[in-house]
Design goal:
Bound molecules: adenosine monophosphate
Radius of gyration: 23 Å
Strand order of the largest sheet: 5-6-4-1-7-8
Largest sheet: 6 strands, parallel
Shape: elongated
Structural class: alpha/beta
CATH topology of the largest domain: Rossmann fold
Length: 390
């Protein structure tokens, strides 16, 4: 893997694609974690006297009204506070003001360029990787560092476009992600996959890619009920992903010994946190009951499979963790992995949010920051942002 340490950045104009796609409300940043996480790469460039030019997207820009909402200016202010030095914000994505500001930079100066997706208003130039745009942005610097893992599965002008026109490498954030995720390319055995969440359809690619490598796939969450239905269980009013029934039937037939399903679940009659619930054996669900979490026997069953695991990858919560009544399964399994020092990689999105709620995120081996990017990596796809730099 070619990282920032393998490339000469001393006194160079370094273009960095950051992930400053922070949650905003009324023009204010609600969570600045992503900005904080970018500091390691930026500080490394400062230590090497680089001239630093930062790019990022923020939200989606489909119409004029999105411009104001997704202006990157507040990020420049927060970054300035975090770095303890001036960050010059250029409110445009191209043009004389930007070019002059760059021409006048001194080593250790920092510029943040406006939201790259402002270019999407004009024929989706950023998101469709318009070749002229990538070439133009590349012309502003000497080297390119990609440190935005969340968009690495997309071929955009600000990642693939620039990388195709300049000497390029990964920043520390992407290095950390890829180092952890690549352990799953040839995983140590026993290798256990844990899957939960709502829809089977979203996880089909992951199951197909990992089923041959994994020793077991433990399935909980809403998606378990489509598998249980495929096995002819009465699943009451639990979540069912009808279009995936056929897939579930086939995978259960082909890999009967690998797929482990819940044996008991927490059931209720309303999708809410208020209603009482009962734990029921999977044979005993009534037509009006829905399962919203795995039960204690399933937790014990899953732990039994996990106890000898050398590596675990987990995508999707095992219950409706947003309701405190139904986060027990997810939290107990997370705690088990942490308490037993089992190497676990959380595959982005909701399972990372669930680990955060349980104060366990920093205790697991790796919590991936990518949602779609991590999922596509687990599907075994070639990610354009990686291919452009490899
Ligand atoms: P996904 O994005 O597919 O990983 O799905 C995450 C969502 O799955 C979360 O919002 C959970 O509330 C939901 N979920 C997990 N378990 C269940 C369940 N048993 N029934 C309905 N939704 C569930």
């Amino acid at each position: 893997m070619k990282t920032i340490k393998d490339i000469d950045i001393e006194n160079k104009k370094v273009l960095i694609r950051c992930d400053f796609n922070v949650p905003m409300k009324d023009g204010k940043i609600i969570d600045d974690n992503r900005i904080k996480e970018s500091l390691k790469t930026i500080n490394y460039c400062l230590d090497h006297n680089a001239k630093i030019i930062l790019f990022s997207h923020l939200g989606r820009v489909k119409e004029e009204a999105d411009l104001k909402k997704n202006n990157l200016a507040p990020v420049a202010e927060r970054l300035e506070e975090l770095l303890g030095k001036k960050v010059t914000f250029i409110a445009k994505t191209r043009g004389e003001e930007l070019e002059n500001a760059i021409a006048n930079m001194k080593p250790q100066d920092v510029i943040l360029v406006q939201n790259t997706r402002y270019e999407d208003l004009d024929g989706k130039k950023e998101s469709s990787n318009d070749p002229e745009l990538g070439k133009y942005w590349a012309s502003l610097g000497d080297v390119f560092i990609n440190d935005a893992f969340g968009t690495i599965h997309r071929a955009h002008a600000s990642n693939v476009g620039i990388a195709s026109n300049l000497p390029s490498a990964f920043g520390f954030l992407i290095e950390k992600e890829l180092t952890a995720l690549s352990e799953l390319d040839h995983p140590q055995q026993p290798f256990i996959v844990v899957l939960g969440g709502a829809k089977v359809a979203d996880k089909i690619g992951v199951i197909e890619n990992l089923v041959t490598k994994a020793d077991k796939i433990l399935i909980g969450g809403g998606m378990a009920f489509t598998f249980l239905k495929a096995e002819n269980y009465e699943v009451g009013s639990s979540l069912i992903d009808k279009e995936s029934l056929e897939f579930c039937t086939k995978i259960l037939k082909d890999y009967a010994d690998k797929i482990i399903l819940p044996v008991d679940v927490a059931v209720t009659t309303e999708y809410s946190n208020e209603e009482e619930y009962q734990v029921k054996d999977i044979n005993n669900l009534a037509y009006n009951e829905m399962g919203l979490d795995i039960g204690p026997n399933t937790i014990a069953l899953f732990e039994n499979h996990l106890k000898t695991a050398k590596i675990v990858v987990w995508n999707g919560p095992l219950g409706v963790y947003e309701f405190d009544k139904y986060r027990k399964g997810t939290e107990e399994i997370l705690k088990y992995l942490v308490d037993h020092n089992i190497k676990a990689i959380l595959g982005g999105g909701d399972i990372v949010a669930a680990a955060s709620t349980a104060n366990l995120k920093d205790k697991v081996y790796h919590a991936s920051t990518g949602g779609g990017a991590t999922l596509e990596y687990l599907e075994g796809k070639t990610l354009p942002g990686i291919a452009a730099i490899k």
